[in-house]
Amino acid sequence: MDIQINNLKKYYKDKLVLDIDNLQIKKRIITGIIGPNGAGKSTLLNIIAGMDKDFKGSVLYKGKSIDKNIYKDMTLVLQRPNLFKRSVYENIEYPLKIRSISKGERKVKVENILKRLDILDLKDKKGHLLSGGESQKVSLGRALVFTPKLLLLDEPTSNIDTNSTNLIEREILNYNKINKSTVIIITHDLKQAKRLCDEIVCIERGKVGGIDGVF
Ligand SMILES: Nc1ncnc2c1ncn2[C@@H]1O[C@H](COP(=O)(O)OP(=O)(O)OP(=O)(O)O)[C@@H](O)[C@H]1O
Predict the structure, then answer these.
(1) What ipTM goes with this model?
(2) What domain of life does the native source organism fall in (predicted)?
């Protein structure tokens, strides 16, 4: 098990937005989180990512409380990513730079990602000037480039056209297969969940529900 959640309660002011007795997310597979708008999906992903520590209950990663240790293993790709005001190349290179990967190796890895995600033409564009869909692709590239053991994706194709969605889905599947990384993906698209996910968790009004009748 990679992630174990017990008696999780999350409030915004006095409103209970997550109330999960027990949820286990297995390692090395792709788990989908589905559910209607406002159900609590992003809130849950932020908690798993260690971005939100203001909750009650226990959230464990590899049997330990989520703390700074998770950051070296994990990356969270947001629906509306914050990219640096630097070139796309530098944005994708950044996680490698802070891990002291040599310049030559960085170049090989970044160019490989640019090709795989079909964004070579964006290489010199500034990160903050990209469209929504372009930003999502670059943000995914910035995540995949350092092969995190835990990849968290918040609606990674919400702004993406059909062709690019196919390409991104292929990359996510290959990534999981080749690296045996744990992937958690929030999606509104039930067909996408079926195409990508080994397991599916349905969140409704903050609670984990069954998926009977969903497909
Ligand atoms: N910072 C915040 N302050 C107050 N309430 C919030 C905050 N962030 C989210 N909420 C509320 O918490 C609930 C869960 O929000 P969340 O973004 O987790 O839902 P979601 O399932 O990801 O929705 P969507 O599918 O629309 O992205 C919603 O009712 C939302 O309005």
Answers:
(1) 0.97
(2) Bacteria
Which residue, 84, 74, 68, 67, is CA-closest to 25? 74
State which ligand 1 atom lies nearest to the alpha carbon of 40: 18
180-184-189-192 Cα dihedral, nearest 10 degrees: 0
Question: In this structure, which residue's CA is closest to atom 24 in ligand 1?
Answer: 37
CA 10–ligand 1 middle distance (angstroms): 11
62-105 pLDDT, tens per residue?
888 887 667 778 999 998 888 999 999 999 999 999 999 999 99
Tokens describing residue 169: 């889905």
What's the predicted TM-score (pTM) here? Answer: 0.94
Ligand 1 pocket: which of 10, 20, 43 to mutate (most atoms <8 Å of CB)? Answer: 43
C-beta 40 within 6 A of ligand 1: yes
